UniProtKB/TrEMBL annotation:
Natural source organism: Paracoccus litorisediminis
Protein name: DUF3553 domain-containing protein
InterPro entries assigned to the protein according to its UniProt record, in alphabetical order: DUF3553 (IPR021938)
Amino acid sequence: MNEILEPGMIVRHPGAPEWGLGQVQSRIGDRITVNFANAGKQVLDGRHVDLQLVTEHS
C-alpha cells in the first residue's frame, strides 16, 4: 500500500498507534518521511511497515 502514498496524505502507523495521525512529507523509494502528531518527524522503511491510509470514514 505504501507505493500509493504521496505528500499530504494522512496515515497511521499500525505498530505505533500512540504516535497519532501523521502527514506524509515525502516518499523516495522505500523511505517514507512522516510527521506524526505525537512523535514528530519519522523516516520509515516501507519494506518493514505498511502504513494505513486515513480517509474521512476511517
